[in-house]
Amino acid sequence: YLCLLSPVFGCVKVCGGLSYSFFKRLTANSNQYARLNMKDDGTFVGRPWQNITVQEMIRFHGVVLKMSIDDRKLGGYEAYFVDNMQINLGRAYSIRLNDFPAWASKIFTLSRFKQIRAAYHPEVGASTIGDKCHQLRHAIDTLN
Question: How far is 50 from 92, CA to CA, in rounded Å?
């Protein structure tokens, strides 16, 4: 499935400014956020923390992009990680999502995806000048 994302990232890299150094900065800031917010026992989001690699961050962006264009309407992001997921729609009514492969589980475990999603911070800390776009300022400036 990563090969399906390669042309998209090639295009974004050329046309959109998402260079390796962009992902390297995003990865470093996300790792710093996770380390600042992990529990005393070294866990973050319920499991032992392992720094995100730049390759994982690029894959994370690819997974989120593919999720955004996939036609799955139910189950949230977990539906991309679980085959034939059952969704409860009420006390006595549930449905099973058949014929939707769990393609994201070939790239990440669900728990690692959740951990990266929780750590995802383009910038660490608060703005010192009251910039409401502080978390996205570098990305905005890079893409403009």
Answer: 40
- How far is 119 from 32, CA to CA, in rounded Å? 9
Task: Give yes or no for residue 2 having a pLDDT over 50.
Answer: no
Average pLDDT, the chain: 80
CA dihedral 51, 54, 60, 63 (to 10 degrees): -150
pLDDT of residue 70: 77
The tokens describing 105, both together, are 């589980």
Q: Could you give the CA distance from residue 14 to residue 6 in angstroms, rounded to a whole number? A: 12
Q: Mean pLDDT over residues 87-91, rounded?
A: 78
Residue closest to 27 by CA, chosen among 48, 50, 57, 64 = 57
Strands 86-88 and 47-48 turn out to be: unpaired
